[in-house]
Design goal:
This protein is α+β, with helices and mostly antiparallel strands and about 350 residues long. It contains 10 helices and 12 strands.
Length: about 350
């Protein structure tokens, strides 16, 4: 064997060893996650996991799931409420606001729990069966907003940023036509379980008091024990949140869950510690100061909404929240995430819940 042949053999062996080591490291990481064993401490009823698919509607799916859970808690009845009805009505409200602001407002697929509450209160709601299935109008089995928003956004930007001295009302007619073409037309009347409803009368039949729902947050750039509008993307509706210290915010979540109430959670899932398979863990110790620092530096953003419905512990006694996501029955736990309490403490933008849960 000459020198060149010998070096090739050595490099091949070393390369194989490195690949095996890398593979072993990845396997150990996965094994560590897979080895977690959770014991449920408290679990409140929820409706089935849904799939927002290719749409920025986590706010819609999570909060609709929250209200479905509220109905289930109060009446024992399971409803499948229509997310696309909410999206259709909310995007109209958002567009009107955008035009009134002459385009000096954010316009996007995103939103917040306040949006869903406002739609229910103002426009009502319908069951899933009363509208076209998500995605069906564009030949998809699930919601797909790729083409939809590529058409919708330039339209509303052209209106909102128009140099015209006076707008005609026809812009809204055309805009509504785009919504109806992609999302389906919201019904004016429908029959559910043998009875005829309007969206407003159906909402009234759900036995929900829309004055019961409140939002809490925890930041130091506003005084504690006052309400303010969180300066975050997707909060165009300007609904206020009540500001409390971090330990109080965590106590609000725990108290609600312990008393049988679910909590709608809005926060950051784009940083380290949140995986796509069902876990969220945080190495940093959550403090009020660190929360504020991460918020002000854009390290923590408001980019997702989910539903907290229970609590659990792993075999080492570490505490987690059980969280329903809207990405379908995916990941290790079929659409459920186990999120460490320290992750929630550090990455929460706001929580939305029934005020009676903590009174």
């Amino acid at each position: 064997m000459n020198y060149r042949q010998a070096m090739l053999v050595i490099l091949t062996v070393l390369g194989a060893s490195a690949a095996q080591a890398g593979g072993a490291k990845k396997t150990q990481t996965e094994e560590k996650k897979d080895s977690l064993v959770f014991t449920t401490v408290k679990e409140n009823p929820i409706t089935p996991v849904k799939n927002q698919n290719r749409s920025g509607t986590c706010w819609d799916y999570a909060t609709t799931g929250f209200f479905e859970g509220e109905i289930l808690r109060k009446t024992g009845k399971t409803y499948d409420l229509c997310e696309m009805f909410v999206a259709n009505k909310n995007y109209v409200d958002e567009a009107i606001y955008y035009v009134r602001m002459h385009g000096d407002s954010r316009f996007s697929e995103g939103g917040s729990a306040d949006d869903v509450l406002s739609v229910y209160r103002t426009h009502g709601i319908c069951p899933e069966e009363a509208m076209a299935a998500p995605g069906s109008l564009v030949g998809d089995s699930l919601a797909n907003f790729n083409e939809f928003f590529s058409v919708l956004t330039p339209y509303i930007e052209a209106v909102g940023k128009s140099k015209a001295k006076k707008l005609s009302p026809q812009w809204l007619v055309g805009y509504q036509g785009i919504l109806d073409a992609y999302l389906g037309k919201c019904p004016e009347k429908f029959v559910y379980e043998g009875k005829e409803y309007t969206p407003k009368s159906f909402a009234e039949s759900l036995q929900l008091d829309f004055d019961d729902y409140v939002s809490y947050t925890s930041f130091t750039h506003h005084p504690f024990y006052t309400s303010f509008i969180i300066e975050a993307p997707y909060k165009w509706r300007l609904g206020p949140s009540y500001n409390v210290p971090l330990d109080s915010l965590m106590n609000i979540i725990d108290t609600a869950i312990d008393r049988g109430y679910n909590v709608c959670w809005g926060g950051d899932v784009s940083g380290n510690g949140f995986d796509r398979q069902g876990l969220a863990q945080e190495d940093a110790t959550p403090t009020q100061e660190l929360r504020q620092q991460r918020f002000d530096s854009w390290e923590a953003t408001y980019d997702h909404v989910m539903l907290i419905y229970g609590k659990a512990k792993d075999q080492q006694g570490r505490e987690y929240y059980m969280v329903k996501n809207s990405w379908g029955e995916t990941g290790r736990y079929k659409g459920i995430w186990y999120m460490r309490k320290n992750y929630i403490a550090l990455n929460t933008t706001y929580v939305f819940l029934n005020r009676h849960a903590i009174e």
